[in-house]
Amino acid sequence: MRYDVIVVGAGIAGLVAACELIDANKKVLLVDQEPENSIGGQAFWSFGGLFLVDSPEQRRLGIKDSKALAWQDWIGTAGFDRLEDEDVLAYEWAKAYVDFAAGEKYSWLQSKGIRFFPVVGWAERGGSLAGGHGNSVPRFHIVWGTGPGLVEPFSNQVLQAVSEGKIDYKPRHQVTELITIDGEVSGIRGNILEAATIARGEESSRVVIDHFEYHADAVVVASGGIGANIELVKKNWPARLGTPPENMVSGVPAYVDGKMLEITEQIGGRIVNRDRMWHYTEGLKNWNPIWQNHGIRILPGPSSMWFDAVGNRFTAPNFPGFDTLSTLEAIQKTGYDYSWFILTEKIIEKEFALSGSEQNSDLTNKSIKEVLKRVLPGPPAAVQAFKDNGEDFVVADNLKDLVMGMNELVGSELLDFMHIKEQILARDREIENKFSKDAQITAIHGARNYIGDKLIRAAKPHKLLDSKAGPLIAVRLNILTRKTLGGLQTNLNGQVLNEYGDPISGLFAAGEVSGFGGGGVHGYRSLEGTFLGGCLYTGLQVGKFLSK
């Protein structure tokens, strides 16, 4: 059979592209190696955070944002330094994406029925100069319904089109080859996998029961990154971040294996910025895992004290929620692959949130009643469950017992009680005033000047060793794999380029496999909310181009 367009991957980028093609009455085939209940891919599991600029939600909270400020933040964060080669198109995609985030993105999402939680989050706060890394203002907009709420409008449109015979959707179809004729991509070949009756996110069978071959005028690769392929992550690990972690937890399901990157490279597609990646430093081992080695990220407020594996406090900008990549580098250069938060019950109940739609049932289920319970004393239910059951948590009534428990957890005597106590006492003395030379305490006061943080994300400053704020809590933090920042180099139409910089006829890419645009739209660092947004935008642009 022959189609106008074949889309490989039913994640959010592939769905958005397919929806545009459906609207243009194109003959489309959508294939994915996972079962139908995995439609939406990684986006389903996300917290649903989106980067928006000068939104109504920001303005209602008194946040003054602009495209110029957002671009200043993007450039200061990305650190593009390969502009004559690997970054040349990524830079152009970045400009276009910031224009989109400050322009039609909000109204386009609204037209799809997507709404937002009214409090805008402040992720990746930076901690450097105005022109350096980080968001100058809160821009992290949480979709009402989290990841499933974002996926739903697009998956519903695709499934409705399937029922009406407007598109063919074939789950359990694993692409193993891109067909080329005289240098042009003309279709796909692969394996039909046995049916899999598994829960979403569980690892599916790779037993082959048949083979397939389909042809089209264009093929769109929208297959995601490499986050679950730990060996490939380590292979691409850059020396600037120290040695690869010995142990990592996986923030994505097993199907995020990077195989389509290899398949596309085999027919001449150029992969750039392989050494750029985005892994979180606040990973927990999931006490109730869905996939193997399942990790969950803490979305922290600014108040926990952060220590390395031997008990030294990290310095600016390596505070919770400020500079992910800088902290990752600092951790890896210690020679250990974990670090510690030390905090109080007062901090955890206000400042800890967990990534993932399944960890935020109140927002995912759009329950206002349940959301309001977040202001009640005590941690959110999902956080409390990790505190009660998670292997990375230590709780004690006094610091000596806490440090003893931390050492027992890792099976070593690396942490010295007096060394940690002296650092906490020094910090606690700085809390006496509303001003401080301690950069983290100054940042806490600054965060509470933003009404959103004061209400739900930044605890009232207090001494960690104040018994009234206890008990004390320590959390072992693992490195959690997540995003591939490099990828297939694409022009602004989403066409994949070869090693000479020429478009490969008939071949397009969208989403993480393309580095979220151009082979690395983020440069070295993300401003957060830009991964889902990059999938939406690249899928939209490719879909529009192929709809002409």
TrEMBL record:
Gene3D superfamilies, sorted: FAD/NAD(P)-binding domain, Succinate dehydrogenase/fumarate reductase flavoprotein, catalytic domain
A Pfam family reported for this protein in Swiss-Prot or TrEMBL: FAD_binding_2
SUPFAM superfamilies per UniProt: FAD/NAD(P)-binding domain (SSF51905)
PROSITE patterns: PROKAR_LIPOPROTEIN
Alphabetically ordered keywords of this record: Flavoprotein, Oxidoreductase
UniProt KW Oxidoreductase keyword: yes
Domain FAD-dependent oxidoreductase 2 FAD-binding: 4-532
InterPro entries xrefs: FAD-dep_OxRdtase_2_FAD-bd (IPR003953), FAD/NAD-bd_sf (IPR036188), KsdD_DH (IPR014614), Succ_DH/fumarate_Rdtase_cat_sf (IPR027477)
Protein's UniProt name: FAD-binding dehydrogenase
Originating organism: Solibacillus palustris
